[in-house]
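We both want to read discrete structure tokens more fluently, so let's practise on a single case. Once you have written the record down, we can walk along the chain together.
***
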Amino acid sequence: MIAHLKGRLDSTGIDHAVIDVGGVGYLVGASARTLSAIGPVGEAAMLHTEMLVSEDSIRLVGFASADERDWFRLLTGVQGVGSRVALAILSALEPADLMRAIASGDKAMVARANGVGPKLAQRIVMELKDKVGGIALAIGQGGGIAPPAGAGADAVSALLNLGFRPAEASAAVASAEEELGAGASLDALVRLALRKAAK
């Protein structure tokens, strides 16, 4: 298992990069987001990787962040989502946006990605809704995908302590943040999120 590659960025294509590690060029599939984040050709580069093994091939997929790799694993665990579709979703949405979309059941946002129709978007949202809550909890313990920051994160934590499910808490707080704006206080966020979650 190859967990990451650290070397020199040799070249990039529409959906891949070649990383030169000690004279060996590794062809790594990647999302548009990762390709724009890894820096210029000829410079040092590091990618988190996932190795895909099938009957007739072994491929590497690379990610600029561990968050993106974690989402790739979650997405490819959904029936009907292969590596290409997962990369298309990660090209269209940042991990934090994807987490918000799934937590709030926003299948239209997921369907923005190339190759994702309404039915597949619905399946992704349904299958990952509870898992996203688990990720939100893992973040609080020091790993995984970026949670809501500042007062938003504290508000989610407050709702979790009151017994709400992680997905419900995340969705209610995201909705409250949208309504109140970026400068909302923790108190106001929790009050509005509680009203939204209780509906």
User: Anything to note?
Assistant: The beta strands are 4-12, 16-21, 24-30, 44-53, 58-63.
